[in-house]
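Human:
Class, as today's exercise, you are to examine the entry below, and be ready to discuss the fold:
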Amino acid sequence: MSLAGHLWMPLAVARRGAHLLHYPHFDLPPAMPGPLVATIHDLKYIARPDFFPQRGRVKRLAIRWLTDISRKRSENTM
């Protein structure tokens, strides 16, 4: 998700007053309000970074950081 998405999506969810949000990816915006369930279906960038040498160190760290946020913020992770 883009940086803009990380900013506007939490606002849109808050405006709608969602009781539960399912987020189907590893990059859950850290400011997302309310109870969450995340589906993290692809850990290849974390499990086998050697398969993706074109990914820079900063991008790999960002993926790991956002995946960790998604896991910690979610009520449940699939």
Observations:
- Strands lie at 21-23, 36-38, 76-77.
- Residues 57-73 form the longest helix (17 residues).
- The radius of gyration is 13 Å.
- The chain has a mean pLDDT of 85.
